[in-house]
C-alpha cells in the first residue's frame, strides 16, 4: 500500500473521539471553563483512568503527591499541559486489539520512552510535557501500519525489540512508521513541533527548524530499546548515538547507558492503555 493510499483511508487512522474534541475546543477558548473540562473528562471512565495514569506517570511538573482526581490534575497542571495530557490519554483508547501486537508490551515500552524523553527535556530546558507526549506517541505509526498490512514481513518482529525496523520498512514499503505517526498526530491536532519530532525521530538531523525535540526523542527510543535488548558493556557504549547527544548539548550521557535511567514501567501501569 502506498503512503498516500494509507493516509487517505479514514478507517485506518482513528478519528478524534467526540469527548476529546469537545474538551480541546473548550481548552482553546479565550477563557476556558475548567468545570466544563473536568465534566467532559469525567464522563468517560476509560479516558478518566488514562488521564490520571498519565498525570501520575509524567508528573507534568506537578508535585510528587499522587494525583487522584481529574479536578486535581487540571488544577495542578495548567491549561497547556492539560491539553497535551488529554490528547495523549485519548490515544490509548484509539488503538485497541491491533492484530499481532502485545498492546501491554507496546504501551509499557512507549511509557518508558516518554519518561526518558521527559527527563531529558527537563535537563535541556525543553517542554517536558510535550516531550513526554512525543515519547508516548512515537510508535503509533507502526500500529497503523500493522492494522493496514498485518502480514508484511517488515512488521512481524516486535516493535519493542526490533532495532532495524525503520530501515526494513523503508526498504520494503518506501516509507516507515515515523511518517505515518506524524500524519496521525496532525489529524489529531497535536502541535507542529511534536509532529515534526515524530516525523524525524529516526533521522533527527533532517527536517526544518529546531531539531532538539526529534534528537531528544531519538535518544529516548535508543535508551529504552537498549534496556529491552539487555545491552551492556562495550556493545552498549559502541552503539550509543554520541553524535546526536552532542548535537543538542547533552553532556552527561553516562546515565542514558545505565540501568537506572528512570523507574521502568511495570505491566500493570501500561494495562490501562491496552
Question: Characteristics of this structure?
Answer:
Hypothetical protein af1432; 60% helix; 16 helices; mainly alpha
Description of the molecule:
The protein is an all-alpha fold and 274 residues long. The protein has a domain at 3-14 and 95-273: Hypothetical protein af1432 (Orthogonal Bundle), CATH 1.10.3210.10. It contains 16 helices and no strands. The chain has helices spanning 3-7, 18-27, 34-42, 45-58, 70-77, 79-94, 103-124, 128-137, 140-148, 165-173, 177-187, 192-199, 212-228, 233-239, 242-247, 267-270.
Whole-number average pLDDT?
A: 88
Reading off the top of the CATH hierarchy, the class of one domain is best stated as Mainly Alpha
Low-confidence stretches: none
Query: What Rg do the Cα atoms give?
Result: 18 Å
Distance between the ends: 27 Å
User: What is the tally of beta strands?
Assistant: 0
Helices and strands, in order, run as: HHHHHHHHHHHHHHHH
Strand content: under 5%
CATH fold group of one domain: Hypothetical protein af1432
Structural class: mainly alpha
Q: Number of helical segments?
A: 16
Largest sheet: none
Approximately how much helix is present in the residues?
A: 55-70%
Coarse morphology = globular
Give the CATH H-level superfamily of one domain: Hypothetical protein af1432
**Which architecture of one domain would the CATH scheme give at its second level?**
Orthogonal Bundle
